[in-house]
């Protein structure tokens, strides 16, 4: 029997911890603690379908792996932000958080923090994400109106693992 990898163990541990703490904070959403908007405060109640979680795991851990992937971050609904050009993959070649789950109707904004990057849907993505050619100091937003899994990458940095994912539920 194959032993689970470090990332899968960390993801499972994080999920168990999050489930145990789900009712411990009221909060108003606010800052998610990682530089992102915490959504509507109901983010801990989002249940990720197993099939969607598996698709994200397979995509982000495939060669080249996104070295900053440690599970899917619940972001809630409304408007959330993903940093583009965050530290990871040997430089400023990452999205942060790398994988998120949001509710249908949520607008995700990708904000450039460093370098020339873009957001482009990967083969098999349920959403047609396309910020255009790689550029510096920009932003891109997309409103997710239906459930599905959006997988994406940065064109010039895909070979070093600059990949991300959005799971949309509801």
Automatic annotation (TrEMBL):
Its cofactor is Cu(2+). Cu cation binds at residues 117, 154, 157, 162. Residues 23-42 have a biased composition (Gly residues). The crystal structure with reduced Cu(1+) has also been determined. Residues 85-168 form the Blue (type 1) copper domain. Keywords: Copper, Metal-binding. Residues 22-46 are annotated as: Disordered. The keyword Metal-binding applies. Pfam families: Copper-bind (PF00127). CDD domains: Halocyanin (cd04220). InterPro entries: BlueCu_1, Cupredoxin, Halocyanin, Plastocyanin. This is Halocyanin domain-containing protein. It comes from the Archaea. NCBIfam families: halo_cynanin. GO terms for molecular function: copper ion binding; electron transfer activity. It comes from Haloglomus irregulare.
């Amino acid at each position: 029997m194959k032993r689970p990898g470090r990332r899968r163990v960390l993801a499972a541990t994080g999920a168990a911890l999050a489930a145990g703490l789900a009712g411990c904070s009221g909060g108003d959403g606010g800052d998610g603690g990682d530089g992102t908007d915490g959504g509507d405060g109901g983010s801990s109640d989002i249940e990720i379908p197993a099939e969607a979680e598996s698709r994200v795991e397979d995509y982000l851990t495939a060669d080249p792996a996104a070295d900053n992937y440690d599970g899917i971050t619940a972001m809630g609904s409304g408007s959330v932000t993903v940093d583009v050009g965050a530290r990871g993959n040997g430089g400023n070649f990452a999205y942060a958080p790398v994988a998120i789950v949001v509710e249908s109707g949520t607008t995700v904004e990708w904000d450039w923090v460093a370098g020339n990057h873009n957001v482009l849907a990967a083969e098999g993505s349920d959403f047609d994400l396309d910020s255009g050619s790689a550029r510096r100091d920009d932003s891109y937003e997309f409103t997710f109106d239906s459930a599905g899994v959006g997988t994406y990458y940065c064109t010039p940095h895909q070979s070093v693992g600059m990949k991300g994912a959005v799971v949309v539920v509801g």
